[in-house]
Amino acid sequence: MPSAKRPAGPFTPLDFQLVLLRRMADHNPDLVEDARRELGVSITDMREANRRWQALLHAPRARSAVARYRSVLGDPESTTPRRIGDLICDALLWPVPLWPDLRFEVLVAPDSVVWNEWLVRAPGAPGPRLGTLQDLIPWSCTVDEVARAFAPARPLEGTAPTRWGLAFTAPDASGTRHACTAEFTWGLLQRTGVGGRP
């Protein structure tokens, strides 16, 4: 049953989850449909949330990325110093109710510039066991989990904003190794391919 049209108001954490889903719908429409129903929202709600998010991003006096996330998601659940090479940044984490074992992570440089924004495993939450191609199930794992499980993995340019790719070698269930690629949206696995792009 379609949800009633929600009145326009502040952009909420629910709206932000719809933005994440909107980007994932190109690869996994069935999973997105199930998630949308779980959240009790309509396709129109999802499209409207994405439209409003784009308006926030491109407003003439748009807030900084960190200020935008704080205004939408509230104070982060945690803020942790993170070293990347010779530089130290802050990793801000917010819960994402749709994926209780994940967190939305924003890496912020000392000059307040956002370096990265994606989904990661929540601290202390057990990750999936990744040993073969068959373990690479959409929405089951994050970029860093796949990169660690099938090291060395090579980053690939994403096909669109908020998308990342990895190239790596992984065995199938029989132990035969294959050259593989995987594509992620907002850091979450969407699809895997053997020999070439997913």
Written overview of the protein:
The protein has helices at 13-24, 29-39, 43-58, 65-73, 143-149, and strands spanning 78-84, 87-95, 102-108, 114-121, 154-156, 163-171, 177-185, 188-194. It is an alpha+beta fold and 198 residues long. The protein has three domains: 13-58, no CATH class; 73-121, 2-Layer Sandwich (Beta-lactamase Inhibitory Protein, Chain:B, domain 1), CATH 3.30.1450.10; 133-194, no CATH class. The protein has a four-stranded antiparallel β-sheet. Strands 5-6-7-8 form a four-stranded antiparallel β-sheet. A hairpin with a 6-residue loop joins strand 2 (87-95) and strand 3 (102-108). The protein starts with 12 loop residues before the first helix and ends with a strand.
Map the helices and strands.
Blueprint: H1 13-24, H2 29-39, H3 43-58, H4 65-73, E1 78-84, E2 87-95, E3 102-108, E4 114-121, H5 143-149, E5 154-156, E6 163-171, E7 177-185, E8 188-194
Antiparallel strand pairs: 1-2, 2-3, 3-4, 5-6, 6-7, 7-8
Helix pairs in contact: 1-2, 1-3
